[in-house]
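Thread: "does anyone have the structure for this chain?"

Original post by V.I.:
We have the sequence but no experimental structure in hand. Need at least a predicted one for the grant figures.
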Amino acid sequence: MTEISYPVLTPSLVTTLRALTPARVGLDRVGVSMQTRDLLAFQRCQAQARDAVYAELESGALAAAVAAVTRLKVLQLRSSAGDRACYLQRPDCGRKLDEASSRLLERHRGSFDLAVVVADGLSALAVERHALRVLEELLPQLASWQLAPMCIVEQGRVAIGDEIGYALNAEIAVVLIGERPGLSSPDSLGAYLTWRPRPGRTDAERNCISNIRAEGLSYAEAASQLAACLAAARRLRGTGVALMLQPAQLADGASR
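Reply from O.Q.:
Generated one for you, tokens below.
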């Protein structure tokens, strides 16, 4: 049997690895225990992730900021999850609108190329920090698109964009949503796009651009990727597995 040897985590190697990842690499120990500083850092990150999950979205302030930047009408909506506890315990309630929101959308039905939805998801912090900046980068690249009123949704999950896009009669729906927090990323934003949205669409029928935040994918790069995906979706008339393209193909789609 060949013996497998592993490199020793020397201080220089640990420094190199830590420069590449926020993961906890090469933690020091005192006996069989972690050092106090590392334990406290872990507990801080865990608390930040928990706070992000339970945080409430300041939808009124966000709606005002989005309206000022986009010059579009902004609709404030709610899912059928009455509160945060219901949202976390009943994912199905976060995927559909309450009655008042459904009635509001009926009054704004039209014929649109794109419906953009901003939902709190599992991190309102991510939405409040990053959604507006992504929109500032994205919308100038969609000058020729007919945009539906912007929608801000409280207690919303990804699939709520299907109902919204269908109600507004939009060809494509994009949902900017707070992703599930990790121990090193309590404020990660995701962008999900779905061709011909309607209730019942599956995850295989949508695409995701994730980890949009200061330490991850930049606003400019996220907007560029999203605009390219939207152009390709229009050209191919599909998203999800129909849009599993290489970067070169996406770039080609964006140029058409």
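V.I.: this helps a lot. The chain has a mean pLDDT of 90.
O.Q.: and DSSP finds nine helices and eight strands in the chain.
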